[in-house]
Amino acid sequence: DMPDFDSSVFMKVMSVNMGTLSHAIEGVLPKLIASKGRLVGIGSASAYVPFARAEAYGSSKAAIHYLMKTLQISLAPHDVSVSLVVPGFVETPMTKQNDFPMPFIQTTAQASQAIRDGIESGHDVIEFPKKLTLPLKALGTLPDLVWQQVSEKLNKK
């Protein structure tokens, strides 16, 4: 049974998630530097571990993680702060379409509060809910062979 891989769908997800963020950064960067402001980008806990069926989404979010972490370094001399938001599942029209369990799903109000609290506290990384993000982050540090075996078990029908 051949898995579906549609490069046009993949590129659309990359364009929506990574492309729009890069265009926005280009537009606001001069004002951010002038005001010594804070840039905030939305990643995903899915970037911590590879999930089958999330190739495009996870890749786009992993790219955002890399971008925001590099901007933390390259914008520091300009006194621009950079925050990477790493949410777990949030109740949205997109997540309503998911046909898999979404542990510790957050309301948009909970997510908004967590992001605002993280920005106000000046955090470089704003992860929530911790009971989901911390175990995923730990799983992501395991050797690939271990994670591949876990993923295979999760993906069996």
Structure description:
The chain has one domain (39-155): Rossmann fold, CATH 3.40.50. 57% of the residues lie in helices and 10% in strands. The chain is built from six helices and three strands, in the order αβαβααβαα. It has helices at residues 7-35, 55-74, 93-96, 108-120, 130-140, 144-155, and strands spanning 38-42, 81-87, 125-128. A three-stranded parallel sheet has the order 1-2-3. Helix 1 runs parallel beside helix 2. The relative contact order is 0.13.
Distance between the termini: 12 Å
Give the mean pLDDT: 89
CATH superfamily: NAD(P)-binding Rossmann-like Domain
Q: Name the helix and strand elements from N-terminus to C-terminus, one letter apiece.
A: HEHEHHEHH
Sketch the major β-sheet.
3 strands, parallel
How large, in whole angstroms, is the Cα Rg? 17 Å
CATH class term? Alpha Beta
Count of individual helical segments: 6
Number of strands: 3
Side by side, the strands of the main sheet go 1-2-3
Task: Furnish the topology, listing elements before pairings.
Blueprint: H1 7-35, E1 38-42, H2 55-74, E2 81-87, H3 93-96, H4 108-120, E3 125-128, H5 130-140, H6 144-155
Parallel strand pairs: 1-2, 2-3
Helix pairs in contact: 1-2
